[in-house]
Each structure stands twice: as C-alpha cells, then as structure tokens.
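Structure representation:
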Amino acid sequence: MALELRQQLKLTQKLVMTQQLRQAIRLLQLNRLELSNALQAELEQNPALEEDFGIQEEGSNPQSLSSVEEVQGVGQETDFTEPVRAADTMPETNWEDYANNFDDNFSFSHETPAADAPSQFDFISQKPGLSAYLHWQLAHSDLDSEEWDIALFIIGNLNRYGFLEVDLPEIMEETGCDHDAAEYVLELIQDLDPPGIAARNVSESLFLQLERKGQGNSLAAEIVLHHLDHLQTSNHAAIARATGRKKPEIIKAIDFITSELSPYPGLPYAEENTNYIVPDIYVKKIDGQYVVQLNDDDLPHLKLSSHYQELLQSNATMQKDSRAYIKEKLKDAEWFLKSLHQRQRTIFKVMESILRFQHDFFEYGPTRLKPLILRDVAEDIGMHESTISRVTSNKYVHTPQGIYELKYFFSTSIPREGADPLAAESIRERIRRLIKDEDPHKPLSDDALSKKLAETNVQIARRTVAKYREQMKILPVKHRRKT
C-alpha cells in the first residue's frame, strides 16, 4: 500500500464556544455575590455600560436587571432615567463626623466629654486570633532568639482547635534545637491562656486544664487520661470497675469535666467570619398563591450608554479606529445585558418548575418533598440538564419553610408499597424528627429507627438509616445516651 497526500473536502457540524457563549455560561453559574462583583467589574472595564439610577416602575419586568427594556439592538434602547445631578449622588460631607473625638452627635448628653474618653476609632478593631493572643503573652517572657524560633514554630503549627499538629522530634528537626529546649518552650506555651492550649490530643488538653485548676491528681484527671473512651460512651460502670470508685463519685467527676472543661481550647479564638446567605430568589405566598420573585436588591441596574450611541450616530467625521472601538464596546455591552436577562429568565423558569413539582413541600415542609431529578425540570422548561445544573448550583431561595439551596429540591427516589415514592431528603427529615423526639435515656438505635419508619410504610435497611444519620452528622446511639 502506497502512502500519498490527498486533499479532501469534509462537511461537519460542531458547537463553537464563542466568547459571548462563554460569557453567558459564566454568568449563569455565578451566585449572587459573584454576580455583583462581575457587574461592578464590567462597569469599570466597558465604558459603553453605565448604571441606571432611575427607579423601576411597578409594571416593569420582574426578571430584568435593568430599569430599561431588554436591549434588542444598538440604538434601540429607550432611556427612562432623568439626568443625575452631582448634588444627588454626592451629598455634602460633614468632616466633623470623622474627627477623633466625641461631639454632640456621638454622645447621649450635651456635656463636653472627658479628654480621655474613647473615640469612635477605638471601637474599630479586629478580633485577635489565637496566634496573636499567644504572641502577646509571649512578649512578656524572657526568651532568647533560639527559643523564640521554637515558640513561633509551635504556634504556627496549632490548628483551629488549639492542638499541636507536630511532635517533639519534628520541632527539633525543623528548628535545629535539642530535646530539652523544645520541651521547655512547649511547656512554656502550655502554661499560657487559654488553658489546655498546645496539647497533642483531647486527653492531654483536658489534663492540662485540670492541672491549672489544681486537680492533677484527682479522679477526673485519671478519667481523662486513661478512660476517655468510656467517658465518650457514658459507660460509668466500666469506669467504676477500672478505678475502683463508686458510681456517685464517677458521676460527680464526669459532671465536673463536662461543665468546667473545654475539649477544644482554641476554638473561641478561631479567626472565622460568618458567611451570611443572601437568597437569589423569593417564593412568597400571596392570597393563597405562591409567587416567584427575583432578588435584585443592591444589584446595579445597567443600560447601554446613550452618550456613546449618540456619539456614534452623530459624529460622521470620527476616525475609523475610534468608531470601531465604540462599536466593539457597544456590542460587548449589548451581549452582556442579553446574557444577564437570559440568566434571570432561566433562574425564574427553573424556580417556577420546581414550585410546580414540589408544591407540597412549600405547603407542608420537608417531609413532603418528592423525588426530583434534573431531567424532569429540563424537560418541563425545554432546556438542557447541564443548564439546570448550573442554575441550581450555589443559588438559594427564600421560602415560607426557610432558606434552601436550589440543589436541595433534587433528591433520589425511595419506593413504597402501594404509595407514592418518597425523596431521600424527606426520609432524612423523618429520621431527624424521630431522634429529636426520642427518650435521651433510651435513645433509638439504627435498627429501631428502621422499624419505626417501617410502621409508616417506609422500608429501608438499618445500614441505610446509619448512612443517612451520618450524613446529618448525628451521633450513634451509644454517644446520644444520657444517664
């Protein structure tokens, strides 16, 4: 067989990911915070986009991000916004409010505050973390440069719970010190506040706290050092047999451990900020009917710049490069606005479809959640499953039952004999309620929970109950039992 070069024509179809399509997909999967940042970034980068400061009229499109109608083409936008004056957007600044003193505006009385009175700047501070708190305490210690290196290495290897994640050989290897120096600095840090800091495990942390309270030789110390596993399972009889103490003494020591000691000493100093969820969409019940409403609060309303459109149409003597630049920016802005409107319409349609499928959930709660998959919603609104997946990721809805992620409404099906199938999330909610209502002295085992569910025509195995319980981060029966 001879090899030869040959030209051949071939006709094929393929999907080309244009920049506009990439932009539409990217905007579709952004959550509300990321969308706000994307709008601000586009405003800064594209001069053909401007923020519309006009107030939306009552009859405007609820799915729109702008106070103008959706753009159909360059030059077809109708601007309903009145000209914004500088006085409307930049009020006169009272610079006395920024003075570092208390005047009548910051005091409950009209008397002149004392010279040493705190100012408003004294209340603007960041909560110190565990590392900063330990550094501040070590500043009063007489440490040489080598000991400071060891101390900084130890503090840098404390996790958010205050436990040391390295051992003495690792400290010696990394800092180049001997065993005595590493042990001395570690004991010095363990003497700092909070009590129990820099321990290797929970048992050592609890023992350090007991030593700080002068109970290093007590029954409580013996329990946390040698019988912590029995303490976790509330096995008082095993602790009594191992220690030779009576049960009332054991119970008294355990009560002291659970009420006076902390298993995670560093947790109160964890540098973590609370992340608040802002819903992307609301479902409200008005006059007996559920209404879907997009959350456009605090999002900038965008529109095409009328100045650049007029400049492009009126100035015939404009240079070719300048005209091409303005046309390109107007086209990019138009595509961006279309992508925003498409995003809002898609979210609105998906939420309406979910509302139709899960109407009983909005009426009665999580126990009435029905099985639902992405394909059901995709076929209902005529879109692809990948689009539904992007829409429901990292987006939240505020409902009469609470705030939920859109992914929450999609769950696998659990069949039932002679009845409609249930969603897995609905069964998890039933297990959660059974455990919540159980007797704390006689908690329900996984097998007992399976039998309880079988009484309501929900047939699932014990191992399935255990899997759902672990997903909800609920402890097993031996850890839930209270004496």
Remarks:
- The longest helix spans residues 320-357.
- Residues 55-90, 98-110 have pLDDT under 50 and may be disordered.
- Residues 122 and 477 are 50 Å apart (CA to CA).
- The chain is about 45% helix and 5% strand.
